[in-house]
Amino acid sequence: MILIVASSMICGAEERVNHGIADWISFAANLEASRHDTQFFEPHHDANVGSWDSRLEIWLPPYREAGAYGPYIRFSGIKANKPDAWENVFLAAPGCGFQIFPFSFKSLKGEDQSFRFLGPLRLYGEYNRQDYWGEENSWRPRFQKKAGADYWLDWHGNDYRYSWWAEIWGGIWWQSANEYDGHYNTSFGALNVRTGLRVPSAERLSWFTPYLVMDSTSSSKHTSYWENRFQLGGGLRIVPDLAKKEAALTRCFIFVENIRTCSYYHTQGPSSIPRTDHRFGIGATIGSWFYQP
């Protein structure tokens, strides 16, 4: 359940001549609470899951008006009502890193906004302290190094003026550890796309939007079938209109969806592993975690 800002302000703000605290420090978070049927783990896993990923960010001169880069502190975790370690962990408790949005700089933006859709691209490196809860998990790795690039785009997700919306998350990264190996040293690539339709500017009818899901993940560990698969699905969202609201809440929805594993890229998953997962829940974003062009 994944982790990013571009060069906009946390509350979408005004141009400033004198730089105040909001120009050089911000907070962004991505939150979700949901119910999962299988988690692609076991039949009738029936897990209630809460996950969060957040960053307290410091922006160095010339600040985000002309370029977005700087250090950050990360807080992230997942908690479920099931005892499995991978569902009950502080993934960053905390972590620290450095990030740069290369296409946020004025010299690359251009007058015609040619690079607008490259704005969400983020390069980063971070070091996370991990904490798997419970004495039985005391042997698990406590630290993780991670570096790579990611891309988070929200295109009209909570804007009733448009009939089409999309969310895109993609990433390429390397990480040193997972929940059972402190020297996992694995590279990953992932792409997740959700796109849907709504009746625009139709009051309550615009709340409801059906959508499609495509999810693909791949890792250099070809025997880890859960890291190498292609999935498709669909769902329905109920969303409020946030287009005209100047608030910290920039993304919000209630959802129900069903996703199916269509194929594995390398090693096939065991026949006992469910191919589908039905889920419902609520999601929200605070600040500029998703880039909104």
CATH class descriptor: Mainly Beta
Assign the structural class, choosing from mainly alpha, mainly beta, alpha/beta, alpha+beta, or little secondary structure: mainly beta
* Average pLDDT for all residues: 90
Radius of gyration of CA atoms, rounded to a whole number: 19 Å
Q: Going across the major beta sheet, what is the strand order?
A: 1-2-3-4-5-7-8-9-10-11-12-13
Task: State the end-to-end distance.
Answer: 23 Å
Along the chain, the helix and strand elements come as HEEHEEHEEEEEEEEE
Q: What is the CATH fold-level name? A: Porin
Largest sheet: 12 strands, antiparallel, barrel
Low-confidence stretches: 1-17
Please sum up the structure shown:
Residues 1-17 have low confidence and may be disordered. The protein has helices spanning 21-24, 63-66, 106-109; strands at 25-36, 47-58, 68-80, 89-101, 122-129, 131-132, 143-155, 164-175, 186-197, 208-219, 229-238, 249-264, 276-286.
Characterize the structure shown.
- The chain has helices at 21-24, 63-66, 106-109, and strands at 25-36, 47-58, 68-80, 89-101, 122-129, 131-132, 143-155, 164-175, 186-197, 208-219, 229-238, 249-264, 276-286.
- The model is unreliable at 1-17 (pLDDT under 50).
- 4% of the residues lie in helices and 50% in strands.
- The chain has one domain (21-286): Porin (Beta Barrel), CATH 2.40.160.
- A twelve-stranded antiparallel barrel has the order 1-2-3-4-5-7-8-9-10-11-12-13.
- With 293 residues, it is mainly beta.
- A hairpin with an 8-residue loop joins strand 3 and strand 4 (89-101).
- The protein starts with 20 loop residues before the first helix and ends in a 7-residue tail after the last strand.
- The protein has three helices and 13 strands.
